[in-house]
Structures are given as C-alpha cells and as structure tokens.
C-alpha cells in the first residue's frame, strides 16, 4: 500500500491496523458502497470509489474528529458523517448507496 510506504518513509507510521477500525491518530481509507461493491466486481474497480480521511482520539470505534481535505479542517465525527458524507456522495459518487466502511487503517505517532 503506497500510503503506508509514504508514512513509513516519513518516520511517522506506527502500525497498520489489521482490524480496519478507526485509529486513535492516523488515516483511514473508506469504501463507498454502490454497484461497484456487488459480488464479483474486481477489487481494482471498487478502489476507484474510496476516500482517505484522517482521524484523532478514538472513542470506541468512532473518532472524535475527522480531517477531510474537502473541508480543509478538523470536523467533529458526527458533523462529518451527517453533513459532509452525504454531500460528497451526491457530488462525487451519485450511484452510491449511502453506505460506507473502513477498508484500511494506519496509526501514526501523535
């Protein structure tokens, strides 16, 4: 994974989480659901419909804050999920179902 290599080269990668949960501090790759996530669709096609965000201070399996390049600043998780995700899907992924999940999770040193 190229993102992990970049973070490793910068000396900030702590570990790649194998459970795909939100890290305390790090980045996650989100998979938007849609026709591209149906059974039999190649993984390469699915990955064209993903989005990276940063997270900080995890509570359970939800971050306190999310940094999304589309906003340009830290946003409370609930605001990001309720406001930005629907807008992003409408603007960038009109065939999306509205569902999404974490596919990759990388922890970095805070």
What's a concise summary of this model?
The chain has three helices and six strands. The protein has 110 residues and is of the alpha+beta class.
Order the strands across the largest sheet as they lie in space. 1-6-2-3-4-5
Query: How far from one another are the termini?
Result: 21 Å
Radius of gyration: 14 Å
The beta-strand count equals 6
Structural class designation: alpha+beta
Largest sheet, if any? 6 strands, antiparallel
Give the % helix: 25-40%
List the helices and strands and how they pair.
Layout: H1 2-10, E1 13-17, E2 25-32, H2 43-46, E3 50-59, E4 62-68, E5 73-76, H3 77-92, E6 100-108
Antiparallel strand pairs: 1-6, 2-3, 2-6, 3-4, 4-5
Question: Any key phrases for this structure?
Answer:
110 residues
Overall description:
This protein has three helices and six strands, in the order H-E-E-H-E-E-E-H-E. The protein has 110 residues and is of the alpha+beta class. It has one domain (21-108). It has a six-stranded antiparallel beta sheet with strand order 1-6-2-3-4-5. It is globular and about 35 Å long. The relative contact order is 0.28.
